[in-house]
């Protein structure tokens, strides 16, 4: 059986990003815990919504994190990441989660999470 292509969604942009976490099982468990439903600081979620991020998911494969970020259609990634970095508590959050990541505590989210290049799309 072959399933038909799904209808195109409403206009939005999708970004995929990756970063390395520290290869330590206790830190990985703690990183999962701070991203559990209701555990992320509300100011962080609010800031993402304010800059045009509609939805975000983070997946793990070992100590490799993979993010899918859906945004409004006219989203300007660089401008939005600068605006997000200036939001209240964002720098504090980035310093907090840096303990789990292979990164510098002063790095912004845009510096940590590397954009991935899409090389294939079904139906494209």
UniProtKB/TrEMBL annotation:
Transmembrane segments: none annotated. One of its GO terms (molecular function) is racemase and epimerase activity, acting on carbohydrates and derivatives. It comes from the Bacteria. Signal peptide: none annotated. This is L-rhamnose mutarotase. It comes from Hymenobacter coccineus. The lineage of its organism: Bacteria, Pseudomonadati, Bacteroidota, Cytophagia, Cytophagales.
